[in-house]
Specification:
The chain has 255 residues and is mainly α. The protein has eight helices and five strands; from the N terminus they run βαββααββααααα. Helix 2 (75-96) runs antiparallel to helix 4 and helix 5 (178-197) crosses helix 6 (209-215). The chain starts with a strand and ends with a helix.
């Protein structure tokens, strides 16, 4: 059995997965240079022929230079990260089923984003697992953007873990270092959350900088647009007006 679901935004790990997306725009450059601006969607409403909304941005605060990333992982470090990820995932299985027996390392091959859904669907289905698909559009059109297993007992939970451990993403770059994490937190708390708030999208107050950095890569706080999917045009305009930290870091490093 499969179930559809709408995926509005990636989670924090995938945002680090965790943290840098889409292409640059004139508005993003304006925002990053410290000037207030407004953006309206390209399409017009059918009734008036005018833009149905405007999206605000805010001045970019001075966060200092973007810290330099750590060098790429060695093969040994990448392998250690794969094992660490599988261990962490298994801890989640044990939290639900303390008596579960861990299979031998099922690693088969790394997968790319382009093939992930197809590979994981095949693995989950071969294990007899129910599936849930996620879509990047509210109307569930187009191919699925994600797939998840829906285990109902211990054996199925172990089988689902085995599929995830067998076909992980390869980690070739380290997660953000402490200096980068501090900059990201400053960006989130001093620009992204206030930028969302300027568009009527409020978020809970952030933790302290030290708490957020020390909890990484755990999900402690990250500004979001809420649980309900936004109008696709509004979402696209908002992403231009309030770019995510990965995009901002990439643009500043390039510039």
């Amino acid at each position: 059995m499969t179930r559809p679901s709408t995926v509005a935004r990636p989670d924090l790990r995938d945002r680090a997965a965790i943290v840098l997306a889409t292409a640059a725009s004139v508005l993003a450059v304006t925002a990053l240079s410290g000037c207030a601006a407004f953006i309206a969607p390209v399409s017009a409403s059918e009734e008036t022929g005018e833009s149905p909304f405007a999206v605000a941005t805010i001045p970019m605060p001075d966060l200092g230079p973007v810290p330099e990333p750590d060098p790429p992982l060695t093969d040994a470090e990448s392998e250690a990260e794969r094992i660490r990820t599988a261990d962490g995932d298994w801890a989640g299985v044990l939290a639900q089923y303390p008596g579960a027996a861990r299979p031998a390392d099922p690693f088969d091959s790394y997968v790319t984003e382009a093939e992930y859904v197809e590979v994981m669907q095949a693995c989950y289905e071969s294990a007899g697992l129910d599936l849930e698909f996620g879509y990047s559009t509210p109307d569930l059109s187009g191919p699925p953007a994600s797939v998840s297993a829906m285990p109902s007992d211990e054996g199925q939970a172990v089988a689902a873990w085995s599929c995830r451990a067998a076909h992980p993403f390869e980690v070739v770059a380290p997660l953000a270092n402490e200096a980068e994490l501090g900059w990201i937190f400053d960006y989130l708390s001093r620009f992204l959350a206030p930028c969302y708030a300027a568009n009527g999208l409020d978020n809970p107050p952030p933790p302290t900088r030290e708490e957020w950095v020390s909890a990484w890569p755990g999900y402690l706080w990250y500004p979001t647009t809420g649980d309900r999917p936004l109008d696709p045009e509004f979402q696209a305009a908002l992403d231009e007006a309030c770019p995510n930290p990965d995009r901002a870091m990439a643009e500043l490093r390039e510039g």
